[in-house]
């Protein structure tokens, strides 16, 4: 066999070994993250922890806990953008599930509106929408990480 033919066979073999299950897992993960932030996920009645997200984040081969946040080690996406960090507790003084995404708030907000039918209102550099009583969806640029956007399902109740 010619070297070119052997190279093509090796390439085809590698492509053929790609696991489609990983792709569906990533799609499932996106759904888990998004439903949690939009307050559509099942939460523990006592701890208020989102059950599916907590289970997903326990995979230390894919997520590394850093304080109250989890650094994403793979290509997990949420709201159509690469997820960098995921949080269940909140950001600073704003409690609620959240995600830091690679990308700008305008594109993230457009994705959320297009795929979830949520009308976000632009206020300065951020977008907001009331999801239900005491729950506000906020999409804002990260204050110190250029090119990153924060999305939080903020609980503003008492």
Please indicate the count of domains: 1
**Strand count:** 11
- The percent range for strand residues is 25-35%
The whole-angstrom Rg is 18 Å
- Calculate the terminal CA-CA distance, rounded to whole Å: 73 Å
**Average pLDDT:** 85
How many helices? The count is 4
Query: Multimeric state of these chains?
Result: single chain
| Net shape | globular
Low-confidence stretches: 3-24
Structural class: alpha+beta
Largest sheet: 9 strands, antiparallel
Helix content: 25-40%
SSE ordering = HHHEEEEEEEHEEEE
Model description:
With 158 residues, the protein is of the alpha+beta class. The chain has one domain (23-155). 32% of the residues lie in helices and 32% in strands. It is built from 4 helices and 11 strands. It has helices spanning 3-16, 20-37, 51-57, 105-116; strands at residues 63-66, 69-72, 77-78, 81-87, 90-91, 94-95, 98-102, 121-123, 126-132, 135-141, 148-155. The longest helix is centred in the first third of the chain and has 18 residues, at 20-37. The model is unreliable at 3-24 (pLDDT under 50).
What topology emerges from the helices and strands here?
Blueprint: H1 3-16, H2 20-37, H3 51-57, E1 63-66, E2 69-72, E3 77-78, E4 81-87, E5 90-91, E6 94-95, E7 98-102, H4 105-116, E8 121-123, E9 126-132, E10 135-141, E11 148-155
Antiparallel strand pairs: 1-2, 2-4, 3-4, 4-7, 5-6, 7-11, 8-9, 9-10, 10-11
Summarize the structure.
32% of the residues lie in helices and 32% in strands. It has 158 residues and is an alpha+beta fold. The strands form 2 sheets. Strands 1, 2, 3, 4, 7, 8, 9, 10 and 11 form a 9-stranded antiparallel beta sheet that branches. Strands 5-6 form a two-stranded antiparallel ribbon.
């Amino acid at each position: 066999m010619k070297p070119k033919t052997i190279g093509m066979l090796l390439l085809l073999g590698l492509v053929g070994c790609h696991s489609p299950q990983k792709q569906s897992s990533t799609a499932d993960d996106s759904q888990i993250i998004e439903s949690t932030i939009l307050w559509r996920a099942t939460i523990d009645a006592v701890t208020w922890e989102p059950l599916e997200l907590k289970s997903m984040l326990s995979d230390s081969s894919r997520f590394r806990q850093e304080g109250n946040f989890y650094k994403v080690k793979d290509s997990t996406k949420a709201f159509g953008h690469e997820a960098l960090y995921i949080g269940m507790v909140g950001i600073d003084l704003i409690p609620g599930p959240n995600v830091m995404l690679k990308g700008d708030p305008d594109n993230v907000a457009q994705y959320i509106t297009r795929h979830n039918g949520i009308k976000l209102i632009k206020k300065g550099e951020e977008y907001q929408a009331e999801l239900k009583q005491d729950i506000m969806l906020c999409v804002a640029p990260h204050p110190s990480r250029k090119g990153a956007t924060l999305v939080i399902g903020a609980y503003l109740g008492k």
